[in-house]
Amino acid sequence: MRTIGPISIIIGSTLIGICGANSAPFFSQNSGQVWSLQTPFGIVYGIIPREVVDYPTARAGGTIVVSTSQRRLYYVLGGGKAIRYGIAVGMEGYAWSGVSTVTAKREWPDWTPTPGELQRFPSLPHHMAGGPDNPLGARALYLGDTLYRIHGTNEPWKLGGGVSSGCIRMSNDDVIDLYNRTKIGATVIVQR
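Below the sequence we write its predicted structure tokens.
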């Protein structure tokens, strides 16, 4: 006869209690939400999978299309296909739409919060060198002459939400993949 250890019972009971308390599923393909769970051992979370999908469009290969309502970014491959990535977008009041171009690319970029971010969140550092603890993550694609970027994140459990000050966030693995594919001058279309 097998016995179940006390840690298994605690984890199982916690998960059952959380599942019972939530009427919505942990992950919904339609909403783009990523499930996350705070545990005594840290945050456990799911990632929206990167995948090649059918994407009929007249847009040229290499174009990036961001759908803020779907919480997805599409890298157009051409031939009716695109790579679809899960993203986080601007929080309420900070979402935007428009057309831009990739004007710069950085690996492990430094981060300097905008004056508006410092006003809303006074405890933020005024500058942070690139690295694993930096909120911009592993890579950043800079959009036109704006303050907006497509960048990685050190909080991947927030993907699928509206959490940024307008930037598009991706998992570090996904932003590295996108960074390696994207050329300077690529068109970026952000739509609702």
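Residues 57 and 80 are 6 Å apart (CA to CA).
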